[in-house]
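Lay summary. Proteins are chains of building blocks that fold into shapes, and those shapes determine what they do. In this project we predict the shape from the chain. Here is one chain we studied, written as its sequence of building blocks.
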Amino acid sequence: MRGRFRVGIFSSAFVVLAGLLFWGAAHWKPDAAAYPVQGVDVSEENGVIAWPTVEAAGADFAYIKATEGADSADPNFAENWEKADAAGLRRGAYHVYSLCRPALDQATNFISIVERDQTALPAAVKLTLSGNCDDRPERAQVLRDLSRFIQMVEAHTGKTIILGLSRDFERNYEISSAIDRPLWLTGFFLRPSYASRDWAMWQASTFRRVKGIQGSTNWNVIQQ
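And here is the predicted shape, written in a compact code that computers can read:
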């Protein structure tokens, strides 16, 4: 009987501890004194967003998914774009790059959805192998295609693009040493260091709870 009681106490303590750890992780963000400019990146997966509430919760900016591949557009982009701006957040658009589709078609897709806007943050392109197509072209081809995409998007926006570079994409293709553009890297709770040079933007968490957004969302900081 006493043994069962002890097991029950330990089990309850474990549940409480796990809950505290989850709560802490869900509400953690990098130190605002070190990184005063912080914000979110969102897509249709985040549902309908209450942008004034997000701004009040401490987000200074938002990167909003616009397109993916050659023919996919985020159905919430236009609404998010307009309402984030109205709430006082600076906003930028991003494209999810596909290794299975021509760079020209992908750039055309992005340009058709995102209007040139001098008040917007620079456009970003997310480069990841997770959830992407199964094709793995040679590095030289990827660099040629990506450079073409970048050239077209920069000509349209009038601003230097940001490379959202995942760890697996960088490991396969070593993009950071070949294309000189600001980097957006991922490192959960820890500063990322997997690229050949330092980052301009850090995605520090993918499951932060932010008032105004349903469920978890991505939280980022700018290095100044």
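What the prediction tells us: The CA atoms of residues 71 and 151 lie 19 Å apart.
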